[in-house]
Amino acid sequence: MIELDDLRKTYHLPGRDVVALAGVDLEVAPGEVYGVVGESGAGKSTLLRCVNLLERPDTGTVTVAGQELTSLRGEELRKARQQIGMIFQHFELLAQRTVAANVALPLELAGVKRRKRDLRVDELLDLVGLADKAAAYPAQLSGGQKQRVGIARALAAGPAVMLCDEATSALDPDTTRSILGLLRDITSRLGVTVLLITHEYEVVKSVCDSVALLKDGKVVEKGPIASLLSTPNSVLAHALLPRLPVAEPATNGGVIADLTFLGEAANRPVITETARTFDIDISVVAGALESLAGLRVGRLRVELLGAAEACDGALKRFGELELAPEVHRV
Ligand SMILES: Nc1ncnc2c1ncn2[C@@H]1O[C@H](COP(=O)(O)OP(=O)(O)OP(=O)(O)O)[C@@H](O)[C@H]1O
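Above: the input record for the complex with adenosine-5'-triphosphate. Below: its predicted structure, written as tokens.
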């Protein structure tokens, strides 16, 4: 649904060049929620601006819903952009317009007739739970309500794709949860594909199917969350896994190791089986369980007590069982 091929963008400043995108390839499948994460300055905003061509990449192509936007200009580009809705960190609502008139704006620009427009606006406000705020002005709304208006406006022209620029960074954690839930729910119901940029892994955890890590203008890792989680040494997987407390010294002088359980592995009696096989004691020190991209992911910190060789054997066995044991050397 969105295809980015070798996107490059350099800003020329007096006396120096800043490479913002250094050859980005990305493919977002229809209906998917795709997150792009990265530190400040990694190139996330530039990437998003290049997708709807608010910024023209120096080279490379952007294809959205089968149409190569980078080959279009003027009226053709304006038309093609109606396939793309956008929501912003600071909502970007027009203060002098009512909620209904803000949502109606893309429809006005697309030349939709008054009656049809009004019906569509009612439907959209209903969808985002703001039917009773149609006549209110943005200043009278909370941050979460403003973003709901932003979502309704982005959906107004019936886009195939929605771009979200740090959509929840200005909101508190509870409001963030409800906005992300709404975004996930509405876009999956309407079959809209979402590309979002964020610097928060919590956002990726709660809504994304796939994720890419941008660093210095390059994608250094990407893929569906479910496959990243089972990729050894994946930086993204590590950042997305449920958090265990900072390692404490071994309480009984044993070997401390963190194990990761994905999906069905959580149901197997591997701890008792391994303890029996190697004739050691294994106790659970800490644990966490979360749902990530529809997959149950568990992490367990265990302490192995027994002969050094037996403990090594047990750790090797955990590796064979794909539990990715990480040993804490204390
Ligand atoms: N209009 C511009 N002119 C000059 N340099 C720019 C411009 N926009 C971005 N840059 C530079 O390009 C690089 C990438 O910036 P970008 O804003 O895309 O990163 P980001 O990952 O979105 O960062 P943040 O999370 O802080 O918004 C940075 O070094 C930035 O200073």
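Notes for the reader.
The chain is about 35% helix and 30% strand.
The mean pLDDT is 91.
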